[in-house]
Amino acid sequence: MTSGGGRVDRCRRQPTVSSALTKDQLLTMYRKMYLIRRFEERAGQQYGLGKIAGFCHLYIGQEAVAVGPVEAIREDDYMLSAYRDHGQPLARGSHAGMLMAELFGRDGGYSKGKGGSMHIFDIEKHFYGGYGIVGGQIPLGAGMAFASRYRNEDRVTVCYFGDAASNQGSFHETLNMASKWKLPVIYICENNRYGMGTAFNRVTAVHEVWKRAEAYGIRGEAVDGMDVLAMYDAVKRAAEECRAGKGPVLLEANTYRFRGHSMADPANYRTKQEVEEERKNDPIPRLQAHIQKNFKGVSDEVFETLRKEVNEEVDEAVKFADASPEPSLEELWRDTIVEEGEEDVKPRERVLGAKVDWPQLPGPKDFEVTWDLEPRDPPAEASKS
Amino acid sequence: MTSGGGRVDRCRRQPTVSSALTKDQLLTMYRKMYLIRRFEERAGQQYGLGKIAGFCHLYIGQEAVAVGPVEAIREDDYMLSAYRDHGQPLARGSHAGMLMAELFGRDGGYSKGKGGSMHIFDIEKHFYGGYGIVGGQIPLGAGMAFASRYRNEDRVTVCYFGDAASNQGSFHETLNMASKWKLPVIYICENNRYGMGTAFNRVTAVHEVWKRAEAYGIRGEAVDGMDVLAMYDAVKRAAEECRAGKGPVLLEANTYRFRGHSMADPANYRTKQEVEEERKNDPIPRLQAHIQKNFKGVSDEVFETLRKEVNEEVDEAVKFADASPEPSLEELWRDTIVEEGEEDVKPRERVLGAKVDWPQLPGPKDFEVTWDLEPRDPPAEASKS
Amino acid sequence: MTELMYREALNEALNEEMTRDNRVYLIGEEVGRYNGAFKVSQGLLDTFGSARIVDAPISELGFTGLAVGSAMVGLRPVVEMMTWNFAILAMDQIVNNAAKLRHMSGGQLRCPIVFRGPGGAGGRLSSQHSQALEANYAHFPGLKVVAPATPADAKGLLKAAIRDENPVIFIEGERLYAIKGEVPEGEHVIPLGKADVKREGKDVTIITWSRMYYFCEEAAKALEEEGISAEIVDLRTLRPLDEEAIIASVKKTNRVVIVEEGWPHSGVGAQVVDIIQSQAFDHLDAPIQRVHGLDVNMSYAANLEAATQPDAPKIIAACKKALYREDG
Amino acid sequence: MTELMYREALNEALNEEMTRDNRVYLIGEEVGRYNGAFKVSQGLLDTFGSARIVDAPISELGFTGLAVGSAMVGLRPVVEMMTWNFAILAMDQIVNNAAKLRHMSGGQLRCPIVFRGPGGAGGRLSSQHSQALEANYAHFPGLKVVAPATPADAKGLLKAAIRDENPVIFIEGERLYAIKGEVPEGEHVIPLGKADVKREGKDVTIITWSRMYYFCEEAAKALEEEGISAEIVDLRTLRPLDEEAIIASVKKTNRVVIVEEGWPHSGVGAQVVDIIQSQAFDHLDAPIQRVHGLDVNMSYAANLEAATQPDAPKIIAACKKALYREDG
Ligand SMILES: Cc1ncc(C[n+]2csc(CCOP(=O)(O)OP(=O)(O)O)c2C)c(N)n1
Ligand SMILES: Cc1ncc(C[n+]2csc(CCOP(=O)(O)OP(=O)(O)O)c2C)c(N)n1
Ligand SMILES: [Mg+2]
Ligand SMILES: [Mg+2]
Question: pTM of the full predicted structure?
Answer without folding.
Answer: 0.97
